[in-house]
Design brief:
Helix content: 40-55%
Largest sheet: 8 strands, parallel, barrel
Order of helices and strands: EHEHEHHEHHEHEHHHHEHHEHEH
CATH topology of the largest domain: TIM Barrel
Strand order of the largest sheet: 1-2-3-4-5-6-7-8
Number of strands: 9
Structural class: alpha/beta
CATH class of the largest domain: Alpha Beta
Strand content: 5-15%
Radius of gyration: 22 Å
Number of domains: 2
Shape: globular
CATH architecture of the largest domain: Alpha-Beta Barrel
Amino acid sequence: MPRLHLAIDNCFASKRWTQPDEWAACIASLGVRCVEASADTEHDPLYNGPTYCERWIGEVRQAEQRHGIKVVNLYSGHGTYSTLGLAHTDRSVAERLRDTWVKKMVDAAAQLDAGLGFYAHAFPLAVLEDPAAYATSHAALVGLLADCAAYAASRMAKTIGVEQMYTPHQVPWTLAGARDLLRAIARRAGNPIYLSIDVGHQSGQARFQKPGFAEFLRAVTAIRQGDWQRVPWLGPKAVFDLAAATARTGSEPALAWAEAERHLPACEHLFATPADGDPYAWLAEFAPYSPIIHLQQTDGRHSAHRPFTRAENATGIITPRRVLEAIMLGYSRLTPASPVPPVSDLYLTLELFFPTAAHPYAALEEVRESVRYWRAAIPADGIELAEALTRVTKES
């Protein structure tokens, strides 16, 4: 059974409390000791440069001692997330990101005795819609991630993990895909790369289910009416084009669908199953391989990184009891065939976003309320999972 720690990503402090001493003092005042330091909060190798980043590490060490906090993980932010990154169509760009961003973050994590989690890749439509191109690009991505895993092991970084997402162009986004990715990287690198589960990143999979004739017919009708918001996901462009042509010409949909179906078997990577959209299914399968678990409140349809306030919890689907039960299920299912070695420490990490125009101190109070909500389940860092689960079960 693992030990649990309540952590918080300092992304809520981005552009607000930006110096290590500032966000460290702020987080300590919330009653949190474990910090996930976001690259967006002024530690991005590409934006800030080596001189500042080295100075930042020294300032973090001072802040840790002054305020009694510990940076337990570093994490990527919006900067690398917004690009094709490690899956760039130009190999030189992908390798540059590996060398000048991922490896530099690994170095920083090693110096701070911290882990690293990140997300820095996406496939463009031209790749997604060409099965052969996708296979080649995916294999190249596996190679680069394996390079990152091997480098992290050489630098004695604690753990390195890639985040799970929720759309076809950002893998891993399905349970099966995540399982295969972890195994492929470990096999190639000789060292594991772990997963970061975000409990709101199951909000997109329901939109990307494999279509049948009913969905094709709905698409034809919606296109004919010009109601593009109601066009369901059809997968490859060839299928969409057939629906559009049918809507334009008024030809027989059944005949077009018979042709469209032939394009689907080669494009399984474009589709999810219902289970892929269940955050608790992800925890039940992958929590033992997810040293970082991102917490946000969600209604299951949006990944807005909302806080755990009374108002948000009223419509939210994420509760401490269900999270801990799913984690327990994951550890109870461990077998020698596990894709990577299980971890013994889980950092349940609040990752809360606030609008740029949000009142900073009002936002801070919502963060404080979120901490109180989760501290009821994790009163002390290092609590064993079984004890925490017994605690929340009794209180409920």
